[in-house]
Batch of 3 targets.
Target 1
Amino acid sequence: MFNLLDGATTGGMGGSMGSILFLVIIFVVFYFFLIRPENKRKKKLNDMRSNITLGDEIVTIGGIIGKVVQVTDDTITFETGEDRVRMQVTKWAISSNVREEKERAQQEAAAKAAKAKKKAKTSGEENSVDNNKD
């Protein structure tokens, strides 16, 4: 009789261990697919906001575009439009730095072009752009 109770008890323990393992696996999946990318995005956004300098063109979360004229620890003052209206916002209200995005896009385009050129030369094909310049 004791053996039957022991078997039932260990069977229940095995089931609960499986449930705990399943929950741990679910948490790990959520961490790598949801939490970690969100933390990386927040860190990148905070870095962008802290690296804003005078003369940068920014876009606020409300869609207002302007050129930075003053930067403090917590606020940014920028000019909008031809009438040079100055607005002051907190740093968390900045959604993007236009200059930084343009530079990143140019770097990515140059990297893709270099990769395509390297691929064309390594595959034995002639680059038609280089041949037409002669």
Target 2
Amino acid sequence: MQFLRAFLVGGLLCLVGQALIDLTKLTPARILTGYVVAGVILGAVGLYQPLADWAGAGATVPLTGFGNLLARGVKEAVAQRGVLGAFTGGFTAAAGGVCAAIFFGILVASLFKSKERY
């Protein structure tokens, strides 16, 4: 059942993104940024975590999940370190995922040679 919930929520997020691309003049960069900001806002007010708990990877893997991770990291850091946590919490919370993305990007780039597209 968890796979179905993840598929439905992740698919709905993708559907909204595709509709924004097809029906508006928004650029993909603006849509992606909007997804991250929406995740931050929904995470900051406490609405995103119940969705992430229910949908699992369908809510945590998309960019809205990254925004939620940033908001949660800032909340926890502010509770521990005060105002300084507002500046460091997002970096600390997302550091593992960002480092993994960079590492695997370099690994794949070193293993495979890119080809020209015609």
Target 3
Amino acid sequence: MSTESFLGIHGTALALREQRLQLLSANIANADTPGFRAQDMDFAKALNAALAPAAGAGADPLDAAAQAARFDAPSSQPSLDGNTVDAERAKAAFAQASLEYRASLNFVESKVRTMLTAITGQ
């Protein structure tokens, strides 16, 4: 049994959630960088793209899906230096994405514990 068939979409979802957290953390880290453009990822679009049959050979489907689902994050007040990070919105998005990541991780951990119980018989 492959990990993909065992975890279903949850392994893919976990990897995409990690990539979204990296994007959001880059936004927070660059809140004071002149000209920095905040980005986010449409998770549902990325997941659908990652689960679709791969059209091109050789490309990592997760990276391709994450790139395709990226967009410029909205900013209510872009700064005069061109930075579009809204620090409070970025922190809130990161907090929500962290919770979603943890939920996916809990599900994967549960599946692994179930498999270990089945293997060890305990």
